[in-house]
Amino acid sequence: MESKNMKPNEVTLVNVLTACARARDLRTVKRVHEYRDEHSFGFHLVLNTALMDAYCKCGCISLAKDLFEAMPVNNLFCWNILIKGYVEDSQYEKALLLFREMQFKGLNGDKVTNVSLLLACSN
């Protein structure tokens, strides 16, 4: 796209991140993150959650957590991505602590949260 002087928008970047997450392509995920920052996309909840999800699926939970903490708004989907990321990375205690923090902030979990918590507790 860039070679043809076309600028990707948020939807394009989300689709690229989804493909990168499936392929576990951390290098490209980081490039998309840099592109987002360099081109002043600002706060875009869907783009940021896709970025968090891609980092988690690539095994970079700390980068996902940094992004999560920098976001001005975290909805249940954001919390679930990070909780599930911790579980998939075998960081079960961190998943449970994050769930407690989520509850403290007044959010209730859903079925996705419960599945992640069950997996954390069973390990």
UniProtKB/TrEMBL annotation:
PPR repeats lie at residues 75-109. NCBIfam families: PPR (TIGR00756). One of its GO terms (molecular function) is RNA binding. Keywords: Repeat. It comes from Dipteronia sinensis. GO terms for biological process: RNA modification. This is Pentatricopeptide repeat-containing protein.
